[in-house]
Write a structure and sequence with these properties.
single chain; alpha/beta; Collagenase (Catalytic Domain); 3-stranded mixed sheet; two-stranded parallel sheet; 2 helices; 5 strands; 15% strand; globular; hydrolase; zinc; M10A_MMP
């Protein structure tokens, strides 16, 4: 299995598809506007990550009060695409929730989960 991320031309050629959508967007997992549901991924073979376009997103650097950190949420959703479930560790990127104004990166629990799933040392 090829485990590299490579940018490709054209949405249809991608194994991982990222998009911003609003409300009922046809996948049975509606967005609710600002707050609560930030994004969802369809793992692991679908390869799609949808972000709620109505959220107030930041692309950093660093935490911005009252704004959701795009990279932190993207890392979480890509974790689902790779087969990770939610973590019980509140410091993990795979923890079920994140508050606005918070930035998270991979921690040891996230890394260990990937190692277990993919047989890495």
């Amino acid at each position: 299995m090829d485990k590299r991320f490579t940018r490709v031309n054209g949405f249809t050629n991608a194994d991982l598809k990222v998009s911003f959508k609003r409300g009922n967007h046809g996948d049975g997992s509606d967005f609710d506007g600002p707050g609560r549901v930030l994004a969802h991924a369809f793992a692991p073979t679908n390869g799609r990550v949808d972000f709620d376009a109505d959220e107030n997103w930041s692309d950093g650097p660093g935490a911005v009060p009252n704004v959701m950190d795009y990279e932190s949420v993207a890392v979480h959703e890509i974790g689902h695409l790779l087969g990770l479930r939610h973590s019980a560790d509140p410091n993990a990127s795979m923890y079920a929730t994140i508050r606005s104004g918070v930035v998270k990166g991979l921690n040891s629990d996230d890394i260990q989960g990937i190692k277990v799933l993919y047989g890495l040392n």
